[in-house]
Specification:
The chain has 254 residues and is of the alpha/beta class. It has nine helices and seven strands, in the order βαβαβαβαβααβαααβ. Bound molecules: NADP nicotinamide-adenine-dinucleotide phosphate. The site of NADP nicotinamide-adenine-dinucleotide phosphate (NAP) has 27 residues, from helix 1.
Length: 254
């Protein structure tokens, strides 16, 4: 057996109160990690998840943090480190949701919010948490990007700008911290089935799936599996990667 073993590791998952964040956190916990779960508004969900993971034998705690604020992420680092230790694994997953409009109609505030929640989120997390990984010579940064960053579909300009911007930060970071045995990778989901679809019965979308080589939407668990792999020792020689988990819907060129 070849296990994904994260026992003894502490992971921070931003946006752990969200659709994908919850499943990513559960999956890292199943692999043995302890979890610092961040939320912005949905404290009840994050705290319920922390209780669930603690009942399963992990150390887990919910923390309120605004990923757009350097001060909030610095405070998160101090609180997490005091509670447990300096984290080994960062999962930069949170995103600000907003209505998608054409470039001609999209309010400038949405470009700014995507810059803050995609680009600066990743900068704040790196500046707060990577320094403590350096002397330990072990660290994992796994950021959640999207297939949309390669598609450039209409109405997605602010989202695409934010996600393509974070891609640049993360590729540079991978080069800068590689000598310390810290890896920096991105998982890029397609349009993913999550709990809200299961509740609403909207898992199937033939219009979308028709163009996907695997002919279906992926699941939150399939995204979380890729995150767990990249967070593990099995992925020790992978860095700077943008890994689509989208059934082949986008394929980066070589
Ligand atoms: N779902 C998909 O099909 C899909 C596809 C491709 C890529 N993605 C990517 O996957 C990631 C997760 O998406 P999702 O669909 O799971 O999103 P979601 O359900 O809307 O969750 C968003 C999360 O981000 C948190 N958040 C929002 N603004 C924040 C801020 N300023 N500071 C801190 N946390 C903040 C929310 O916290 P509260 O709820 O507590 O306020 C929530 O936990 C995103 O990066 C997204 O771009 C998703």
């Amino acid at each position: 057996m070849l296990p994904i073993d994260l026992s003894g590791r502490l992971a921070v998952v931003t946006g752990a109160s969200g659709e994908l964040g919850r499943v990513i956190a559960r999956t890292l916990a199943l692999a043995g990690a302890d979890l610092a779960l961040t939320y912005l508004n949905n404290a009840a969900t994050a705290e319920a998840l922390a209780s669930e993971l603690a009942a399963a034998g992990r150390r887990a705690r919910a923390f309120r943090a605004d990923v757009t604020s350097a001060g909030s992420i610095a405070a998160l680092r101090d609180a997490v480190t005091e509670w447990h230790s300096a984290p080994d694994i960062l999962v930069n997953n949170a995103v600000i949701q907003y209505p998608w409009k054409s470039v001609l109609e999209q309010p400038l505030a949405d470009y700014e919010s995507q810059f803050r929640s995609c680009v600066l989120h990743n900068v704040h997390m790196a500046q707060a948490f990577v320094p403590a990984m350096i002397p330990r010579r072990w660290g994992r940064v796994v950021a959640i990007n999207t297939e949309c960053a390669m598609q450039n579909f209409v109405t997605q300009s602010a989202y695409v700008a934010g996600k393509r911007g974070m891609d640049g930060v993360l590729r540079v970071l991978a080069k800068e911290v590689g000598e310390h045995a810290i890896t920096v990778n991105q998982v890029a989901p397609g349009w993913t089935v999550s709990a809200k679809d299961r509740v609403a019965g909207t898992e199937v979308n033939e219009g979308y799936s028709r163009n996907v080589p695997l002919r279906r939407r992926g699941t939150d668990q399939e995204i979380a599996n890729a995150v767990a792999f990249l967070a593990s020792d099995l992925a020790s020689y992978i860095t700077g990667a943008y890994l689509p988990v989208c059934g082949g819907n986008v394929m980066p060129a070589i």
